[in-house]
Every structure is written in structure tokens, then in C-alpha cells.
Amino acid sequence: MNNTTKQKYDLAERMLKGKIPAEEVQVMTGLDLEVIKKLEEDISPMVRDAKILQGLDNKDLDIGEILYDTNGNDEEADKDY
User: Fold this and answer.
1) Widest CA span in the chain
2) pTM of the model
3) Closest by alpha carbon to 12, among 1, 3, 2, 27?
4) Is 78 in a helix, a strand, or coil?
């Protein structure tokens, strides 16, 4: 697979993740519709998993405490840490 073809596949994958219809992806990339449908099937679990994780926080995932620097402009307050 040469760089041009790889770029077409990458573009198609990004377009499909952005919910652009397969037919429109075909027009924009020039790839066969069967190839695009296969890509769509491959990325469906990734999109589904991302939707499942959307809105969860560290308590939902049980990964412990996460410290946030809410005062990023005040370096004087940060020197104790």
C-alpha cells in the first residue's frame, strides 16, 4: 500500500468516525463501497466504546483521586507542592 492509498484509508476512517455516510466517503476518497463498509464495521466498536465511556469520571472508573491544578496562574501557591 503506497502513501496515497494509506492516506485515503485514513481519511475514510476519520470521516466514518465523524458520522459521514459511506456513500459520501466513497465520493470523497474514491475507495470502493465494499472497502468503506468494511472500515465502517471495524470502527463501529471503537465508536460504541467511546460513547459508553463518555461522561464517566474517575469515581465511576474507580481509578482513585486525580489532582487538578485549578490555580494555574499563581506559581507562588504551587511552590509548596
Assistant:
1) 60
2) 0.55
3) 27
4) helix
CB-CB contact of 16 with 25 (8 Å) = yes
pLDDT band at 28 (very low <50, low <70, confident <90, very high): very high
Question: Using CA atoms, how far apart are residues 12 and 6, in angstroms rounded to an integer?
Answer: 10
Q: Which of 53, 18, 58, 11 is nearest to 35 (CA)?
A: 11
| Across 19-38, average pLDDT | 93
pLDDT tier, 36 (very low <50, low <70, confident <90, very high otherwise): very high
d(CA 27, CA 17): 16
